[in-house]
Amino acid sequence: MGKIQKILVHEQVSQEIQNYIQEKELSEGDKLPSVEEMTQMFGVGRSSLREALRYLEAMDIIQVENGKGIFVRDVNTYRFMGKVKIEQERNFLLHTLEVRRALEGQIIRLASKRITDKQIAELEVCLEEYRKLKEAGKDTSKTDLAFHQSIIKAAGNPVLETVMDSFAGLYEKFFNDPLGNKQLFDETYPFHITMFDAIKAHDTENAMEEFYKMMDCIEAKIKSV
What Gene Ontology molecular-function terms does this entry list (predicted)? Predict the structure, then answer.
């Protein structure tokens, strides 16, 4: 179980203000709602809101003019920051993917040799749920994560499982709105089936081949954003 990362209120509020600027397509010089209005909009106290405003002002996204109001300072800066954020997340995911290839690759290798009939049945249920959600156009991220977590257990190595638990906070980034797109890795769905079929048949070679196809697909999607 990974540690829950604490998110400060002012960080959440600053993100909501940035979302507001983007959604309303505000330009440089456009006025934002007043402090009173934003406390109502976001359901937060004045102190948290003011802290968020100080942060955004320091980043040159807004400008607070006493007695006049709060204004968008430089929308180009805002857009640039968004691009930087995406680039940082892209690099983070690519670096984490390199670790996934090593750790999860060994997990697939072991699972193909050690998986039990009960674990096979559990994975079949998971894949069926995955199929139904995908066909209904619903979010499959939690089921996708559960599928991979079940394979980790099927590897039958408690030390490796502990390593993956410590890695969980980073690992789950692939399933939690990666690069702002919950459906970014939808194209990996067929590889879940072919990889599972190989694991079920205790065919290590094909299981590994399908796993690396999945990793290659994920890498290509990350780089395409």
Answer: DNA binding; DNA-binding transcription factor activity
Query: Residue 70: which residues within 8 A CB-CB, separation 6 or more?
Result: 31, 32, 33, 34, 35, 53, 62, 63, 64
Show the tokens assigned to 16: 């909501």
CATH architecture assignment, domain 9-73: Orthogonal Bundle (1.10)
The per-residue pLDDT for 1 is 40
Cα angle at 211 between 206 and 212, to 5 degrees?
Answer: 100
**Encoding tokens for residue 166?**
């410590």
- How far is C-alpha 106 from the geometric centre of its chain's CA atoms? 23
Q: 84-224: same fold as 9-73?
A: no
Q: Domain extents for the chain?
A: 9-73, 84-224
pLDDT digits (tens, 9 = 90+) for 106-126: 999 999 999 999 999 999 999
Interatomic CA distance for residues 204 and 166, integer angstroms = 26
- CB-based contacts of 45: which residues, under 8 Å, 6+ apart? 39
Q: What is the pLDDT of residue 78?
A: 61
Distance CA 167, CA 100 (A): 10
Q: Which CATH class is domain 84-224?
A: mainly alpha
